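User: Predict VOC family protein's structure from this.
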Amino acid sequence: MTTEQTENRSDPTAHHVGVTVTDLDRAVAFYRDALGLDVLDRFSVSGEAFAEGVGVPGATGEFAHLDAGSARVELVAYDPEGDEAAAERVNQPGAKHLGLAVADLDGFYDELPPAVETVSEPQTTASGTKILFVRDPEGNLVEILEA
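Assistant:
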């Protein structure tokens, strides 16, 4: 690639991580109340361009954007809803998880509401990273790491 091509290219930067949910209000409450993310916006999107863009005929979406520092968490509930899938495990091909960093993982863990499902207590990996995995109310994995 030439210098001119590089200067004209628009390099990607992180904007958001999308999580599809079935109950937007419940998901927003979890990410806001249990994880402490601020709700930036809630909105609906519909129309032919949206349906064609997401590849779902007649689709509409209810969205919530939450502040996760350098990126947003985008929660979306679709109509029509997709087929129910088996609960994901982090080691399955195609598995996804949202990663959030906190300064004090033990303190964060101690303050989690009792209803939050955790995969384990905080663990320090062989690489020295302290991690904790929780599940949101829809079963999506959220990794909390100490940074």
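The chain has four helices and nine strands.
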